[in-house]
Structures are given as structure tokens and as C-alpha cells.
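Quick start: read one record
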Amino acid sequence: MLIVMNIASWILFGIIVGIVANSIDPSVSRGGLLGAILLGIGGAIIGGFLANIIFGISITGFNVTSFVIAVAGSLTVLLVGRVMKPAS
């Protein structure tokens, strides 16, 4: 039961972070709710990894620091995706 609640809390965190990152980024996103979840969780992973390497900060749970790092990671994912997208 604890594992299910932990996964559910990460999905909820991913939704919130993904929606915030999509609202900060001016480009149009087409991923919908699933895209926001994946963006938020991926951003938390990338942001946590980079914050640990650059600043020595580790993610300790759901708090303001983790939220800021996850949003920054999500914006990094969006930026890299935009740079790698071929011009139409």
C-alpha cells in the first residue's frame, strides 16, 4: 500500500510541476495531461541529477527546494527538446 501511495504522490507531483513548467514556457505544448506528468517526473529526475552534480543539493522529498529543482529540470527538458526539434 505504501508503494502505491508513493507512486501516486510522484504522479501528482509530476502533474503539478509539468503544468507549472508548461505555463512558464511560452511555446505550445501538445502532450496533454500525460505529457505534463512525464515532463514533471522527467524534470525532477534531470533537475535532481544536475543539482546534485553542480550544487551538491540532494532531493529529500516533496518540499519547496525539490519543487524549484523539478521545475528548473522540466524547463531544461523543454529547452533541449526545442533545440533538438527540426525546423519546420
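Residues 2-24 form the longest helix (23 residues).
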